[in-house]
Amino acid sequence: MTRRLLHSGSILDADSGDIRAGDVVLEADRIVEVGIGLDGDEGVDCAGSLIVPGFIDCHTHVCFGPAGMDPLRVPRSARALSSVPALQTLLRLGVTTVRDAWGADAGVRLAITSGWIEGPDLLLSLRQVGTTGAIGDVWAPRTGTLDFFDDPSLPDPIFDGADAGRAAVRRMIRAGADWIKVTATGSMALGTGVHDLQLTFDELAAIADEAQRRGGRRVMVHAHGARAAELAARAGAASIEHGTYLDDAAVGAMVENGTWYVPTLSVTQSDPEHAPSGSAEAHRESMRLAIDAGVRIAMGTDCPVRPYSEALWELKHLAAAGLGDAGALRTATIDAARLLGLADERGEIAPGKRADLVILEGSALDCSDLEHRVRQVFHNGTEINR
Ligand SMILES: [Zn+2]
């Protein structure tokens, strides 16, 4: 088997943030050795470069089309086909694993694993499960149709009551969901109900329990307001998505229950002037509270709220919001892998792990201009043609 030797570069230890000189040897889809003075059959000169683990985006939407396209108003096939350039853009930026936060169906994952299209490893949630009137409840006054998907690959996500919540989870899993996405508040984009509690503790606990029964699946909860985040943490959510308006009680509940925070700062920090009034400041304050309390944080972009080409901006926002560069890189690598249950396989440069690697120009940790520093990307041992 060919040993590919990445030599003469610096290597990031994602967990500690330490950088050390060293070589990395890849065989097929795996990292097989990391150390000094290694040998190989084929050399990749990494002089002047920093080798980091492939990035993991815990919250994106790969079937929503380019920023500005309304996915509710295009034919079904256009949504799936729009993932082709989106996935390619993400992979070329070094994003090698993605958790889709709704919109992609199992056919997109099949297309990637079959090699029909190029893309990161894709974890699916299909649609966002929620109660009557929740964000995922797409009905006539808003869209001109009762259920715009009307598609068995993206099942009906609406339920009321705990038993109906279990049934919604079962529908999602039947159609191929790896994660269950739940909405607990309204939406920033629609500008309504961001502090609401759109489901009860019993409903959410039933959903988390049902997901757990099915292969230990877990729940990601869309929650802007503090009360929804607190309720979701207590009801067994694995991660709170957005968490724009957290408070002490919310971050306390998250620490107590081991709940992750996926802040998707790009939503408010990439263009703060056009973010809903006060939200950019509130989001940074939520980060400060979460960091001070010791909440675990994982990277998610919420693309295409911002264009897919800006996905790595999320790291500079995380760094600026208090994590620093090493902390931001950790949220996008080993900590993201921990949230997604993939830490045995991904998120670090270590023997036995998948050969998901990004070679960055220059050896600095600095996250301010990552997309221009990406020189080479390896995904499952294959070099991505950039
Ligand atoms: Zn989202």
Q: What can you tell me about this protein's structure?
A:
This protein has 386 residues and is an alpha/beta fold. The chain has 2 domains: 3-53 and 347-383, Urease, subunit C, domain 1 (Roll); 55-339, Metal-dependent hydrolases (TIM Barrel). 31% of the residues lie in helices and 22% in strands. It has helices at 76-81, 83-92, 106-113, 140-143, 162-174, 201-213, 226-234, 248-257, 266-269, 279-293, 313-331, 334-339, 370-373, and strands spanning 3-12, 19-27, 30-35, 42-45, 49-53, 55-60, 95-100, 121-123, 128-129, 180-183, 219-225, 239-245, 260-262, 357-361, 374-379, 382-383. The strands form 3 sheets. Strands 1, 2, 3, 4, 5, 14, 15 and 16 form an 8-stranded mixed β-sheet that branches. A hairpin with a 6-residue loop joins strand 1 and strand 2. Helix 5 (162-174) packs parallel to helix 6, helix 7 (226-234) packs parallel to helix 8 (248-257) and helix 8 packs across helix 10 (279-293). The protein starts with a strand and ends with a strand. Zinc ion binds at residues 59, 61, 101, 302.
